[in-house]
Amino acid sequence: MHTLQYTDMSIKTSQFLLRLTGMWMKESNTKESRRTFAMTYTIALHIYALYINLTDIYYTWGDMNHCCYEMSNILCISLSLFKTIAIRMRCTVLNDIIILARQNFWHFEYDHEDQILLRKCCEFCKLWTISICCFAQAAVTFYVVVPIYANIGRNKSDRVHPIKMWFDLPLSETPYFEIVFATQVIALQQIGATYVCHYNFSCVLNMHAIYQFRMLQRKLSSLWKDFDKETNSIDYTNNCYTALKECIRRHQLLIKFCEKLKYVYMLPILSDVVVFSILMCLNTYEILLADVSILTRFISVCHIAGNFSYIIFFTHVCHGLIEESSNIGMATYSGWWSVLPMTEPGRKLRKDIRIMIMKSLRPCYLSAGGFFPVSLQTSSTLMSSTLSYFTLMREFSIKMANE
């Protein structure tokens, strides 16, 4: 275990968002009560937001433009709520993942070349964290700006909220208007934080796993750096075998980490695959075809930009995990182990190398509900499905307009 722990902006942001939504690991009894409160608060706001959106779509059924807008909101809220419950059910394994990362990944005790790889990893994670947080905050901002702009010049009895509430109460008058507006903004912020925290943390963990595999490949390649000087040395064979055993332990740790990561995010990834095509189809309709205001279109622009960025980045890192874990076998095989003397350590070294190569033939990956591994092909499939759904929706809207 490494005592000098490392952290950067992406890890700190992930930790803050997970604490805010009640998803961070258990640290003490006092903080456990806070975590339970944060989780209850988060779920309650999701249920509240689902209720007001479902009520609004019920009373405005038939208005296709507004219904598509509300359906997009409902899908985002439902997706966020489902992920929160699914990950909460596996919070023990998530705690193990965080502990493994803290003890073995996030530390300062790397050599110079590994530090270079770690810096590259952190740059990717920072860029991703900043991008996804900006998209989410921009969407929340437009949700608030749209009703504020719409209320300019209106009477106090005719003011609107971000989402209309169908109660037989004077909700457009003071102080009811301000109270309802504030509760909806609070719910928006919490849902936005919950929506982002799962996306951000899964990508950060995945990216760190990729670079840990790259560090392991470099260590395997460096086993044979003194080959020309000590080819027939028994001591050299013993040293190589000792170093190889350390690499094997590292490889086993990475496989264990990836298996836990796959188990925790299996259902959330499946929900993304199922919902994203429909969600982006609705957002595309709102941008291109719906008769809505410019500011409302910006909400859909932020939605589709954030979701598209997540799909591309997440499938990219998932594909990278498959490739880098597979490359372990090539890095192991590429050494000069075949010409080492056939001493007892030499025979054990050859046996362990064969086993390591066989293990790498089954690469680590993240799956969508256990049905299929996520790779770059998944993003192209989702884009194709989105285009198909949008074409059908466009034809349906044209048919309704002609009738």
Present the secondary structure layout.
Layout: H1 9-21, H2 29-59, H3 64-88, H4 91-104, H5 112-150, H6 176-221, H7 234-288, H8 294-333, H9 344-360, H10 376-402
Helix pairs in contact: 1-5, 1-6, 2-3, 2-6, 3-6, 3-7, 4-7, 5-6, 5-8, 6-7, 6-8, 7-8, 7-9, 7-10, 8-9, 8-10
Order of helices and strands: HHHHHHHHHH
Fraction of residues in β-strands: under 5%
Number of helices, where a helix is a run of at least 4 consecutive DSSP H or I residues: 10
How much helical structure, as a percent, in the residues?
over 70%
The mean pLDDT is 84
Cα distance, first to last residue?
A: 70 Å
Radius of gyration: 26 Å
Low-confidence stretches: none
SS-based class: mainly alpha
What does this structure look like?
The protein is mainly α and 403 residues long. It contains ten helices and no strands. α1 (9-21) packs across α6 (176-221), α2 (29-59) packs across α6 (176-221) and α8 (294-333) packs antiparallel against α9 (344-360).
Summed up, what is this model?
The chain has 403 residues and is mainly alpha-helical. 76% of the residues lie in helices and 0% in strands.
Task: Quickly list its features.
403 residues; mainly alpha; 10 helices; 76% helix
